[in-house]
Amino acid sequence: MHPHDQTIFALSSGRLPSAIAIVRLSGSHAGAALQALAGRLPTPRMATRALLRDSEGEPIDDAVVLWFPGPASATGENVAELHVHGSRAVLAAVFATLSALPDLRAAEPGEFTRRAFENGKIDLTEAEGLDDLIHADTDRQRRQALRQLNGLLGDKARNWRRQIIEASALIEAGIDFADEGDVPEELIAPAIARIEILLQEIEASLSARGRSERLRDGLTVVIAGPPNAGKSTLMNQLARREVAIVSPYAGTTRDVIEVQLDLDGYPVMVIDTAGIRDTDDPIEQEGVRRARARAGDADLVLWLSEDGSLGIDQQGEVPIWIVRNKIDLVGRGNDPEAAGPSFRISAKQGDGISVLINALVGFAREYFATNEAGLITRERQRKLLDETAIALRRSIDAVVRGEELAAEELRVAAFALGKLLGRVDVEDLLDVIFREFCIGK
Fold first, then answer.
1. What are the residues whose beta carbons fall under 8 Å from the beta carbon of 285, sequence distance 6 or more?
2. Residue ranges with strand state E in 2-127
3. Residues 276/226, Cβ–Cβ less than 8 Å
4. In contact, 267 and 287? CB cutoff 8 Å
5. Dihedral angle at the C-alpha atoms of 385, 386, 389, 394, nearest 10 degrees?
6. How far apart are CA 306 and CA 335, in angstroms?
7. Selection from 66, 54, 84, 56 nearest residue 30 by Cα
8. Omega into 17 within 30° of 0, i.e. cis?
9. For a 10 Å CB count at each end of the chain, is N or C smaller?
């Protein structure tokens, strides 16, 4: 039997025990399974109270059930939901009863969403948006994921693909009527004009420099500085809990410590690194190497020291803020001139921490401001839009060499957008994407 001929079921709500647990079923036998447990099929899309019974007729739970006949359902198949009390005993009895029914099996991770995709309920960009929404940690991530789930990129890509196909049809018609004087020019000129406009739109989306992708993953801020400068203490202050070991001895932190923060809805990964200094200790040398590497890959470096001096080379275009620590011990004297913002704090006492946090919030807000509503949230999407843009450019250049070459490049562009939406040649990719989902989604 083909896997999609089987009806699947899974717990779709949170961890047990809970007040309510939701069990979802999807497939051609969902209605029969619901009828076996509840004794009847309720009115479609109407919550109905029902006493669920096992195969022996013994009561399982007093529940609320819903029935969604396909194709008017989330997956496009027959779907049933059981809203039961969220105890392990109730769920065990429900699952045992369902497992005993013919052609029913437990769902695999992401299988409900995959069936929705394969039945045309959502495209691949919307499925990715759903995954991002499930894993969103901050409000800004939630907003971006919801826009993607609602078709932010998918709708655009479908419209672009339709226009490319229409332009290709005009060019191919021009090829067919090549013997009729000026007819080809009348068909090909508007097609090329349309392609040029499309290319500008796609290039504008690509020019966002990946910051919508970074909003999904989070901004990276590295705390660097010499040993015993208070980096771990500052890390704990920012996290508002002890995530790093604090010690008066230099070289305590030898590896990279990471903590995810929510700063005004923006996801920020703060990284505490080993103290940067010359050392003969091979383990500490590795820690220093990793610290320098992470600073080079960061979006922002906070250089922490007691005297306000900068002890690290400029890391490419990465901005460096000088943070003078221990002002409660060494005083508030004049700081050396810095190319970027500088701050005075006492990580131990908390002085100046709120000013630093507000500056970090401002940095994150400015970093994401112009790109928060960007179309592209994943590297896969960016690569396929790059392929589309390259093919469109080649089609424009190819017209002078022959309309057939231009038409072929347009087919390549349409194919790339088809892959973006998940409608062509993505079978190998589907397993990778959907296995990242939780079971029951």
1. 279
2. 7-11, 18-26, 48-53, 59-68, 79-86, 104-106
3. yes
4. no
5. -140
6. 10
7. 66
8. yes
9. N
What are the residue ranges of helices labelled H in 240-313? 282-297
Q: Which helix (H) or strand (E) holds 299?
A: none
Distance CA 159, CA 166 (A): 11
Q: Which residues contact 2 (CB under 8 A, 6 or more apart)?
A: none
Provide φ and ψ at 171, rounded to 5°: -65, -45
* CA proximity to 157, closest of 214, 201, 118, 197: 201
Q: How many Cβ atoms are within 10 Å of 216's Cβ, its own excluded?
A: 21
What pLDDT digit, counting tens, does each position of 282-321 carry? 555 555 556 666 666 778 888 888 876 666 666 567 888 8
Q: What's the pLDDT tens digit per position in 158-188?
A: 999 999 988 888 887 766 555 555 445 666 7
CA angle in degrees (0–180, nearest 5) for 386-387-390:
85
- CB–CB of 298/315 below 8 Å? yes
Edge-to-edge strands of the sheet including 266-272?
257-263, 266-272, 219-224, 300-305, 320-324, 342-344
**pLDDT tens digit sequence for 110-164:** 999 999 999 999 999 998 888 888 888 788 788 888 888 888 889 999 999 999 9
Whole-number Å distance between alpha carbons of 382 and 376: 6
Q: How many angstroms separate the CA atoms of 160 and 109, rounded?
A: 32
**DSSP string spanning 169-214?**
HHHHHHHHTTTSTTHHHHHHHHHHHHHHHHHHHHHHHHTTTTHHHH
Lowest mean pLDDT, pick from 33-47, 110-124, 216-230: 216-230
DSSP 103: T
Mean pLDDT of all residues belonging to the chain? 81
More confident residue, 267 or 208: 267
The amino acid sitting at 310 is L
* pLDDT for residue 103 is more than 70: yes
- For the packed helices 183-206 and 403-421, what is the interaxial angle rounded to 10 degrees? 40
* Bridge partners of residue 9, in order along the sequence: 25, 106
**Residue 231 phi/psi, 5° resolution?**
-65, -45
